[in-house]
Request: fold
Amino acid sequence: MADAAEVAEAYAHWREMCNANERLRRMLRGWDRIVHLEATDTGDGFTVSVRDQTLGPLAVGTDGAPDLVVRATSEDFADMFWGDLNPSEKYMSGEIVLAGSQEDVMRLDAMSMVAFLDQ
Amino acid sequence: MTDTTAGAGAGLRRAMGLRTVVSTSTGLAFAALEYLAAAGLVAYVAGDAAWVAVGTAGLLALLAWGFFGELNGMFPTAAAIRLYMKRSMDDRVALVVTFTYMTTIVLVIAADAFIVGSAIAHVFGQATWTAGLWILGLLAVAVAANLRGVRVAGAVQDVATYTVLVTTAVVSAVALARSHRALRFPLQPLHGHHPADFLEAVALGVFLYSAFEWVTTNAEEVRRPHHVHRGMLIAIGLLFVACGLVTVSMAHVLDHHQLGSAFPQLYLGRAALGSAGLWLMAGLTAVTALNTFNGGFITASRFVYATAREGGLPRQLARLNDRAVPWVPVVGLGAASLAVALVVAASHSWQVLVATGAALEAMIYAVAALCVQRLRRRLPDHHRPFRLWAARLLGALGAGVFGLLAVVASVSVSNRFDPVPLVVIGVCGALSAFYVLRVLPKVRAAEEARRASAGRRRPRRPTPPTPAEAGTP
Reply:
């Protein structure tokens, strides 16, 4: 089980990678969204916002009406943000549960793929 | 059936309401190919009693609705087909079935491109071969729009679908009224036909409803989860009314040559409203294609992307362009659809396409029935917000009936024995099986090796000392 500090540390790493990736920033053009992350094991909630092609800092707690909700274990969140876990694989096996439009889901997965695999 | 749903996507800023769920479900089913399937169905039953076959198929569609309702409730995600099949059967079999089923999307996109291309060439009075150029142009536009990330907004889709349904129903009713002839055998579908013909008509009738279940891939974005199965139910009702009217009307006012053409709906429009009706139906055909191209390209390309990301297909298929669109599947889908559409245009074999699609849909409904039955045994305690009554009995019935319809549809084209659809499905199935059994293990091994070489990025946390190490009692 990863505590909130571990998830936040992992997210900070992911955020840095995403915001430093020029290609990813092009992909995020016009995609301003609010994403809620809900850790199913610890009950922690976080809010992430994407605005002006930039990933904002992680806010503790779920704030505002989201465009996308991601539910996973805290370990999966930490592994995902460190790039050790393929979110698609967990999603296709039903371990990561999402609520939101397919296009938003796709964009979020693209962020993780481009940031770590640069495809 | 019982419904104990609780809101999952209720708090989302942008969520899909029931109206859009209904229009999505109906719009995916009501492709331009619907007009050809309706005209083809008339060959098997006593003309204006065609609605009986459409209604019987509708009852079977209700059975399929029960299966997809339960499966979607258990796995309310775009990845549902992978999840329920993986849990019901060997993953390799599940992948073979899924890949084979995905060819339906190629067939439907190709068919719609062909039908719209042929209809445009006809209304402009151009030579038949120019349909090929229109097909090329239409698919090029569809691919380009998809690559740019353009998608039809929910509201536009609502307007397009309801316009298509209402206009089709009105044109059909006007054509019937203006024929000034009473219906001859509206309650005798077997008049002058063998009972086996009725079975084939029902198989084609099921195809009229097919793809209504694709809306389950939107389960993550609906305002209320029960909107999905409620929307599918309403869609089946709407499809019955529109398809029943169009088949009866076509049977009543069109001659044999017109029914066998690539654009029977244009003749129907002309019979109803003269040349204005012809143009109206041409426009309407183009609108149906808008829904097909939008839904088909997005569904198929995103599925291929997700499967490639999961490791089930080569990683190259998950490549994204700068608009986050998986461009390789989009281009591949466009190329495959173009090839199929041109072959159909050159060989005038659109009824083979209809029969192949009907057989594939019946096959996936039989598989869904089996999945419901098996999951009741394997996952008896899994949360089922929507439970099908007598699932074991109906599951067995559904697997048997849809399996039979799949066989019937795969060996019959335009009321003649013709195994070409079976051969097409067999080739697609064999290619899928070859890929899954021979190529996929290598793809997965390469992915494993890549991951192993990448190593772990997450720093290891120091293990907290045990009480003995810490020196505490």
